[in-house]
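The pair is quoted verbatim as follows:
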Amino acid sequence: MTKETRLLTMDQFDDMIELSQFAFQYEIPAVKLAESRERFEREETDRWGIYIDGKLAAQLAILDLFTYIGDKRFAMGGIAGVSTWPEFRRQGLVAELLHHSLEKMKEKGQTLSFLHPFSIGFYRKFGWEVYTDLKTYRIDVSQLPARTPYNGTIKRVEQSYELLNPIYNTYAKQVNGALDRSVAWWNYRIASRKKGQTCVFFDSAGEAQGYVIYEVKNRELFVHELIDLTEEARRALWSFLGQHDSMIDRLEIKVATDDCLAYLLNNPRIKQEIEPYFMARIVDAEAFLNEYPFEAGKEETLLLDIQDEHAAWNNGRFAVRIAADGTANAERISGETNKESIRTGIGSLAAVLTGYKRPTELLRYGLIQGDSRQVEQLERRIPVRTTFLPDFF
């Protein structure tokens, strides 16, 4: 048996598509193949596969993406398309590809990695951890927010990177874990997944302050994306959606977990569902900590003992010196020290630094260890921000 890990190119396009269609149970119509080939060629993505005896057995893709943490932009490797033919499953091939991808992401300076898991437990074993949830509202038409007058105008537009991305990007910097979307992302990912109508709210000064992308079918209104930068924009967009009351029975929308629409309704007893969504992993702990935007405060040093059995470069003790302005300098240290450290797995550290969980919460459940005063010290330096990803890959 011969086994080889390869960087896949367009020469292997047919192999990749065949496995993807089987694994994810979809079919690309012949008329769409050229479009798919173009997207594969144009997207900044490294695709890796393991060939056994000349046949593609397993594959994954590493998308070159960027995300915001504390309004700071980080290079991120998005893992997608992880798939294996059934006859090659449970032979450790995916584990090999994941280890390989960690090495490649580190080489490219991608300090973070996100993925959408088929099994949270499976990817936890390799150091990924849930970093964001999605809240879904299903609202009967009788429970929609009351329509209210507003200044400004709402205009129906074509999806446009130039018009929509400045609004989106301003919002993305306000949460942790949203993507910095490229032109290609809008053209290929948003356009294909978020179809329907696009409307923009302009305030009385003519400034674009929000937009909604939505679709109506079978008397249901599906909001694919609603971004508002001001309370005026939020009210205007919801009033606009309420104008569809005669043609729908219900509305569905996915929002960040801190969204408080229900509280603002006259009848807040709407259907709400919260579920884990994407997972995050710190690829290079030292590099990530050196760039991390800690809260301002007194100058201090924290010791982190990090356990990472799948990325040896992260495994060990690090001194993190945090300056008064929140900038940090992290470096690996060796030898014993009398100072108490905080002991954490790489997954729990990702949950903390993305803002998904607070350090004292994880201490309570034994997911990190250390003196409570040290953990509280770390907690004071972690900004409180909502995690949200209004995308999928």
The chain has three domains: 3-115, 135-277, 284-381.
